[in-house]
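The protein record quoted in full:

***
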Amino acid sequence: MFAVALAVCGLGGAVGPSLAQAGTWTLVSCTQPDGQVAPIDGWTSVAFDGGGNYSSASNSCGVPGGGLFATSSSAWPQTRGSGWMWQFDAPMGATITGGNLDVMLTSPVGQAFVLTPNFTYDGADVVVNCQFNLACGSNGTFTGTVPIDHPGGTSLYAGAMCLGPGQPGQANADCAQGDGVNGINVQIAIYAAQIELTDNTAPTATAFSGLLLAPDARGPADVLFTAGDPNGPGVYQVTATVDGTTAYQGTPDTNGGECASIGNDTNGDPEFLYAQPCKQSESVDLPIDTTAFADGTHTLKLTVTDAAQNSSVVYDGTISTQNAPANTGVPTTSGHDVDVFVGDGLTGKSGSWSAPSGAGSVGYSYQWEDCDAQGNNCAAIAAATGASYTAAPSDVGDTLRVQVTAADSDGFASAMSAPSMVVQSASGSSGAGPGPGTTPGSGGTPAPAPSGSGSAPSGGPGTPNGSVASVSARLRLGLHRVISRSFAQRAFTLKGRLLGPTGAPISGATLDVLEQVLGSSGPMLVIAHARSGKTGAFSVKVPAGPSRLIEVAYRAYSNAKTYATVTRMEEQVAAGVTLTVKPTATSANGSIVLTGRVEGAVPHQGVVVELLVHYLGRWEPFRSVRTSKTGRFRVVYQFQGGRGVFPFRARVRGDQRSFPFTLGQSKVHDVDTH
């Protein structure tokens, strides 16, 4: 029971504006500032001493003149101390630090009050009160806005209690039937509430991943992580800045509309309609358009802000972007499959390129290069920077290639065409120029003895090879002069056509398929045979092998000691490497074991394998290990306190002695540290 002699009648006034501060948000209840109805999240009704007959706590928010009402009725005798109250409880971790209430209090026979932080009727807790023996507004009723000026509590109490005209111990201390005015002993109404809540818990984030953090992010790329606000009002906003420029700012999860601010109060603090407006933990997937940034390395900063304006920088690292055009079809020249003579004009075509939407239009530039007969050791030709080039006498015996550079608004990339046929000084034989296995002056590659014979037959040219055998035959391949294959797909089907000097097909001819391992000095060895069909077309399955030079050769007659024509191509095979990581989950200071094997022919000294971890937006090598002669390796790695998901991979470089493969990488394996 409250003491009634307290001479407090706080009729209140507007709170002066102050600066918004981190850790504070405002809950709006019953009526919004623009007059729309608001929910009453966090409010509950409580009865004093049974509540009393015909007395009640009611919610009429949203009805004109409505609000949260607590009433002690005079239509029936009421026991002293009975009545009703509306109680607000702040969410866990938050305290009430201010705000305003639009209220009405009337107390003909009783007392109406708002208390915080304690349920105690004294000067330290009364926000506003009105009772039968104290002056209280016009005609005993107060209506107005009062400040919540007793901060630090977690609950607020707004009640109406019967308190008869007598004092405790007197017979007339109860509220008799008919004692009140207009059927009311005492009543309080809250028409609108703006309750400032404070929680200084800082947001957190874990488990970063996504394409934006991978090397050379391209086009729209996302970054994924788990954002948290333990015991706080929840994750409200995420901001991503790249090189200090905002690339994203928004609310990833509006929590069904509850995590949406309806504006700011007079202090500048955000207002919400729910006491716990936003989720305390949520998965975030931020899409970032990397075409807005030039290719290269950039700083990425991620900031999480909760509904109380507490902010934390949860990621501060670097990323790399690559939005230059990507070559999807190599450039070509008009001389890649026809004889080229001095004075011939060659036209370069840019090939196929792709660029992300938003990176701007793609422009092309050209540089013609003079290369050796195998298409290697190229040098730029001065002033040959147009799409067309005329073969010069200085090019005789060499091949020609064109380098195409494609550029968009973010960067540029280059790709080289396959080499042309060897440039000749005048029209003549279209046989292959000098190359591996060619005997100078012989007119072609020495032909190995026919199958089943110990030496090449003698005595006349021998049997014609094909329907219209010709020493001026030409071979055409259906593949680029240089192809790149993975280790698993190093076997392939080679197709082409055998034509006579006039372009007529040569059918029924037997062709030799030869190979020489790249980097070796050994001879070309026959690995397969093909036979041309009616149209001169042939198809042969080339068995799996390392990086190599492959030739298709045609002997015009069975006794010929040299091939009439030879065409060649290069197959570059990526090294094969497998990786296993165990365990895939460990502590921030735990250890993992990385084991694997390099596939294919490993030299007796083994090969070097690089082990890499993806950290702070890029792949970082952390250990190099040499395999056994069987290609196997094993490494133990211990984490140094890092938490998150860390991708690992193995990489084998292709420039190692007696290892005829190009750069190869394993699949990526993730390890979660917690």
Q: What stands out?
A: Confidence is low (pLDDT under 50) at residues 1-20, 427-445, 449-458. The CA atoms of residues 24 and 198 lie 4 Å apart.
